[in-house]
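Lab notebook, bench 4. Still working through the backlog of constructs that have no structural model yet. Next entry is a single chain of 119 residues. Request: give me the structure tokens for it.
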Amino acid sequence: MTTREEFHTDTAHTFLTKARSSLSEGDLLQAAEKGWGAAAHSVKAAAEARGWRHSSHRDLFDAVRRLADDSNDVTLRTQFLVANGLHNNFYDGELPVEMIAAGLNEADEFVRRLDQLDD
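Model written out:
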């Protein structure tokens, strides 16, 4: 049986793959949203492992703040803000492909960093 933490971790990695696929297909809205989804699910996995709330955007930002403080890795905050920018683009559709690609790189690195926190 899959735990909630495993579900969120698996979903984060699936979304990263789908984000890259959407980007290569030119579907920038879905690429951006899947990048955000990967980051959000990664935070949910880390929060779940620690017994923290993770049901709202505010909860996710609070969890990232705590993770950054606990790990002394302030880059997590910046990378999550970039992922949030990808989420905003889903509604506005204003980011060019190069910025979405760069944002996906940051989201990918963010997910890897959170994966390493639980190793």
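Notes after review: Residues 28-50 form the longest helix (23 residues). The helical segments are 4-24, 28-50, 57-71, 75-92, 97-117. Flag for follow-up if needed.
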